[in-house]
Specification:
By secondary structure, the chain is mainly α. It is built from 4 helices and no strands.
Length: 72
């Protein structure tokens, strides 16, 4: 699942959460969260844990537009 790093970070700031806080609340280890922010993707179950910890819906952390695929 694609993740919007700016949206994720905005939700963290609004909730007063550091990356360590989010790791503790979500049950996702800190290294995995760093990878999610860098790759901007994660498994659906992981996104669910993020949303539960942040009190948001999946669409709140998804990019507004999906990248276009090459037409072949």
């Amino acid at each position: 699942m694609r993740i919007s790093t700016p949206k994720l970070e905005k939700l963290m700031v609004n909730g007063g959460l550091s990356l360590s806080d989010l790791a503790e609340l979500s049950g996702i280890n800190l290294q995995s969260l760093a990878k999610i922010r860098r790759r901007q993707s994660c498994q659906i179950g992981t996104a669910g844990k993020l949303c539960a910890a942040l009190g948001c819906k999946a669409e709140d952390i998804m990019p507004d537009e999906l990248p276009e695929r090459d037409a072949r």
